[in-house]
Design brief:
The structure holds two protein chains of two kinds. Chain A is an all-alpha fold. Chain A contains 19 helices and two strands. The chains are: A mainly alpha, B mainly alpha. Chains A and B meet through helix 1 of A and helix 4 of B.
């Protein structure tokens, strides 16, 4: 297969599939199942691309056969591939969850495919403005998806989500304009090269704009205000998509724009990142402990968990970026599992939630242990003794707090006898959740593939600055 | 206020507006214009008819219910045109014919793959705006879900 075809096949499959699924009217069961098939086909194409990238190096293409510097460039490297595979996997799980239960609208399956097209596109583009275009494609799909269900709660969540994220998009666009203004290029590689010679203040300004935009997307501490209302208002499958797939935009964006294009500014901002990360971890944990409803606990836990990604970014270098990627991957899987599982009742569900809770807390044998372990190891590569001790104490305290809030919620839900208990959920959904939980256990026992992938992805980025 | 005058002018304006839309579409590349603008102009022409004549009367002369299908045809055409070069090992959106080959002319109109793409964009924008106008025209407060 040609390079261009291998590279574009996933985007083409998702996009054309989305149009096809949107066009078949009236067959509700068919649309969800059809969308699932397209998602699996797109994931297959991504896996082929990943095999190609990991064995024989990055794949690139310039749209329209234009010369370099004129045309819009696409490229697949291990960093983009890792996040594309992760997002596609989360979408498969969420769509399967809806397809099993019989989805009540035909908008959801098609929109999930447009979302997949947008996400895949932004992970595989090498052009900052094209990144914004695909970013908007995924966000517009997400705005409609949050309203899925049509109940007043969901509409309120959708309005909050759309308003906050439209503001975030404007800030992001301003950041890209600033990058273009400083470097005169929109190509990511050119920007990275020219940024090294840019004046410091404009560079810091563009970096700050981008950081705020991605911080809003992640729900990092000072930008988290929208997150609990949205995550608890939407349907479980949508909460899983938002926290498992859409949050990747924030992590990937910070790594790509911060780690690759603005490494000097990122290392300058490291103390601020560490501070915000710490605030996020503590705020999320304390709020989660004070909540009774399980979905609120998981939503606040999501705020806490992105704090660890910030800490890893602040550490920087191959070890720090590798830990950030590994942690982001495992965190996305944890959140997908928990948001889907806490809404279910019946056999398998309790153990699945327990595995998710262990993974969030970073306890073996769940995969979360290796996320925290990578963070520990990265933390030991930097700073003096006091800094290391503070970091280790923070990670240990954060882990202990998350163990506390997760099992508080778990105990309230599954261990106390209840007068009014809902009947057991459908077997298909319970099996799906059990499979996701099992995969977290498998990755907890055999983490080498994930660790290798995140190390390869981190190797794309320049190392720590002297 | 809708009088015989506004009705007559609206009806008179319809076909010239569509003609301007088509002109905007085909004279792109050489002059100001593209599929998106053309789609908006054509959509506005339909909007004027719906406002002045009412949806039911417009429905009698134009099949408004076909608008969504037009939009689907448009996006499918544009996507197909953008992705087709992949089948020949070329990057997406590669121009056909290539830069140094003289394209086929229909009068002063040049046949390029980019024109096909813009026709797709035109159909998408036109179909979508007419479908949205139709939906809003049909919605009355007591008929909302």
């Amino acid at each position: 297969m040609g390079d261009a075809l291998t590279l574009m096949a996933p985007i083409a499959i998702f996009w054309a599939g989305g149009i096809g699924v949107a066009a078949i009217d009236g067959w509700r069961g068919m649309t969800a199942r059809g969308a699932l098939v397209v998602h699996l086909a797109g994931f297959g194409a991504l896996a082929l691309l990943a095999a190609r990238v990991l064995t024989s190096g990055p794949v690139g293409m310039i749209a329209g056969n234009w010369p370099a510097g004129v045309g819009i460039r696409f490229r697949a490297d291990p960093l983009g591939i890792a996040f594309a595979l992760l997002s596609s996997l989360v979408l498969i799980v969420a769509v399967a969850y809806e397809a099993i239960g019989g989805t009540p609208t035909r908008a959801f399956p098609a929109l999930s495919l447009f979302l997949a097209a947008g996400l895949t596109g932004l992970f595989l583009t090498a052009d900052a403005f094209n990144f914004y275009v695909f970013f908007e494609l995924s966000m517009i799909s997400a705005y409609v998806l949050t309203a899925f269900g049509g109940q007043p709660r969901q509409l309120r969540a959708a309005v909050i989500f759309a308003v906050v994220n439209l503001l975030g998009s404007v800030i992001f666009l301003l950041g890209i304009v600033a990058l273009y203004h400083v470097t005169g290029s929109l190509d990511m590689t050119d920007i990275a090269q020219r940024m090294a010679f840019a004046e410091q203040n404009p560079a810091i300004l563009s970096g700050t704009l981008l950081f705020v935009a991605f911080g809003v997307k992640l729900g990092l501490f000072p930008f988290h205000f929208w997150l609990p209302a949205v995550y608890t208002g939407v349907r479980p499958s949508i909460a899983a998509i938002l926290s498992g797939a859409l949050t990747n935009i924030g992590t990937y964006g910070l790594l790509r724009f911060g780690g690759e294009m603005l490494p000097r500014e990122l290392s300058l901002a490291a103390p601020a990142l560490a501070l915000l990360g710490t605030a996020s971890i503590l705020y999320g944990a304390v709020q989660a402990i004070g909540r009774a409803a399980p979905d609120e606990v998981v939503a606040y836990s999501a705020i806490g968990q992105v704090g660890y990604v910030m800490i890893a970014l602040a550490i920087g270098g191959a070890a720090g970026y590798g830990a950030a990627i590994l942690f982001a991957i495992i965190n996305a899987l944890n959140k997908t599992l928990l948001f889907l599982a806490i809404d279910l009742r019946g056999a398998f569900v309790g153990p699945a939630v327990a595995i998710g809770a262990l993974s969030v807390a970073g306890a073996p044998p769940a995969a979360g242990f290796f996320g925290k372990a990578a963070l520990f190891r990265a933390g030991l590569t930097v700073g003096d003794g006091a800094e290391r001790a503070a970091l280790v104490a923070l990670i240990a305290a954060g882990g202990a707090l998350s163990l506390l809030y997760m099992f508080q919620a778990f105990g309230r839900r599954y261990l106390e006898p209840r007068a009014e208990e809902r009947p057991a959920s459908g077997r298909g959904r319970r099996r799906l959740v059990a499979v996701v939980a099992l995969s977290l256990l498998v990755f907890g026992c055999w983490p080498e593939p994930l660790i290798a992938l995140s190390e390869r992805a981190a190797a794309v980025l320049p190392g720590r600055l002297p | 206020m809708i009088t015989a005058l506004t009705r007559t002018v609206a009806k008179l304006l319809f076909l010239p507006s569509l003609m301007i839309a088509v002109a905007t579409l085909v004279k792109g590349y050489a002059d100001v214009g593209d599929g998106f603008t053309a789609g908006v102009i054509a959509g506005l022409a339909v909007l004027l008819q719906v406002i002045v004549l009412g949806r039911d009367e417009v429905e009698r002369m134009l099949p408004l219910r076909w608008a969504p299908r037009l939009a689907f045809a448009g996006i499918a055409l544009a996507l197909l045109d953008a992705l087709a070069p992949l089948a020949f090992g070329q990057p997406v959106m590669t121009h056909l014919p290539p830069a140094n080959v003289k394209p086929i002319h229909l009068g002063s109109l040049e046949l390029l793959s980019a024109v096909v793409f813009d026709v797709g964009v035109f159909l998408l924008v036109f179909g979508f705006s007419v479908a949205a106008i139709d939906l809003l025209g049909r919605a009355s407060p007591d008929r909302l879900p």
